[in-house]
Every structure is written in C-alpha cells, then in structure tokens.
C-alpha cells in the first residue's frame, strides 16, 4: 500500500490519482503542525478575549449577530453538521469519498481554518483504516456547493451517519 506524506500545498496530481485508484496510508508532515496549532491559538485567543466570531460563537444567517452562550457552543457546532447533512441519492463510491477526504485533510492541514490537530488526525485515521463515510451524490447547501457532502463526511466523527468499513462487503442501501 502506498504511503503519502501530506505536506500542505504539495499534493501532486499523481498522488491524487493514486488516492483515487486504491487505498493509501497517510502521514501528516511535521511541517504542518505549527501552522495548525497557530490557527487554533488564534481562535482560542479570540475566545479568551471575549470577541465575537461568526460561526464559532454566534448563530448563522439571520442569527449572525446572536452570541451563543459558552455552554451551548459544542451543541451549536454539532447541530451545524447535523443540519447540513441533507444529501440524497446513491452514495458516492469509495474512491471518490477517499479522494474527498484526502483533499479536505490537505486543505485543513494548511493551518488556515482554526481546526484542531486532533480532528485532522481523526480524518487521517479514517482514511488509513479504509473507513469511508457514506456521502450522498446529490444535494448541497451554499455558494461553495460542498456543505452537505462535507457534513456527511463529518457525521462519522460524531458517531452519526453511516460508513463503509470493509470494502469487500456490500454497501448498505
């Protein structure tokens, strides 16, 4: 099995083709960790200073000006994922889901999102264990068009949704 060391911004088309063709093992290059941690520190500092940050400690859309109580923030983030997991249709094939996962890991590893290293490591562990969330082929929300698919990808880490964990067995309907 091919091992790919993810160095943010250095993923080649050849490596992506390998990811699409067959399962791979991922490793995160140590050079990514400082940027990830600095981004998390920025979010933590903002919170510690009591600043309002859209989507981190506020509602969304019309509720963007509504500050969410600290004790409700975990539920806010969980509810956001659950509410956007609104795709329909047949699930994407494992190769496509694996490719989506690797691209998302590579993007998050650039250190611009404020996401914790442990979340990136959890996604890497899923790829390395050949665990692929079921992502419906149709339906999305938002201008970027990836909110619903990424919400379905994230459900697995919340203990929700469905995933394929033995690619030799039939997929669930």
Q: If you had to describe this structure to a student in words, what would you say it looks like?
A:
This protein has helices spanning 13-21, 33-48, 73-84, 94-108, 117-128, 147-155, and strands spanning 2-6, 24-28, 88-91, 132-133, 136-138, 163-164. It has 173 residues and is an alpha+beta fold. It has one domain (2-45, 73-164): Fumarase/aspartase (N-terminal domain) (Fumarase C, Chain B, domain 1). The strands form three sheets. The chain has a two-stranded parallel sheet. Helix 1 (13-21) links the parallel strand 1 and strand 2 (24-28). The longest helix has 16 residues, at 33-48. It starts with a strand and ends in a 9-residue tail after the last strand. The mean pLDDT is 92.
Features:
two-stranded antiparallel ribbon; Histidine ammonia-lyase; Fumarase C, Chain B, domain 1; 173 residues; two-stranded parallel ribbon; 6 helices; alpha+beta
Q: Could you say which structural class the secondary elements and strand pairing correspond to?
A: alpha+beta
* CATH architecture designation: Orthogonal Bundle
* Helix proportion range: 40-55%
**What value does the average pLDDT take?**
92
Unreliable spans are none
The fraction of residues assigned to DSSP E strands is 5-15%
Q: Enter the CATH topology name.
A: Fumarase C, Chain B, domain 1
Look at the structure and name the CATH superfamily. Answer: Fumarase/aspartase (N-terminal domain)
Biggest sheet, spatial arrangement of strands: 1-2
Count of DSSP-assigned helices: 6
Q: Kindly report how far apart the N and C termini lie.
A: 29 Å
Number of domains: 1
Q: What is the global morphology?
A: globular
Multimerization state:
single chain
């Amino acid at each position: 099995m091919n091992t790919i060391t993810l160095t943010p911004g250095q993923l080649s088309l050849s490596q992506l083709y390998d990811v699409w063709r067959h399962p791979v093992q991922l490793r995160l290059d140590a050079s990514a960790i400082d940027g990830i941690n600095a981004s998390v520190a920025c979010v933590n500092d903002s919170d510690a200073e009591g600043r309002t940050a859209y989507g981190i400690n506020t509602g969304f859309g019309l509720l963007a000006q509504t500050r969410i109580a600290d004790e409700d923030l975990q539920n806010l983030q969980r509810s956001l994922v659950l509410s956007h997991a609104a795709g329909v249709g047949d699930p994407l094939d494992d190769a496509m889901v694996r490719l989506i996962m690797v691209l998302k890991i590579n993007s998050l590893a650039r250190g611009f999102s404020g996401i914790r290293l442990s979340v990136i490591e959890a996604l890497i562990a899923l790829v390395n264990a050949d665990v692929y969330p079921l992502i419906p082929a149709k339906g999305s929300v938002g201008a970027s068009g990836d909110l619903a698919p990424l919400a379905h990808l994230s459900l697995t880490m919340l203990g929700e949704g469905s995933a394929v964990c033995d690619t030799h067995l039939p997929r669930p309907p």
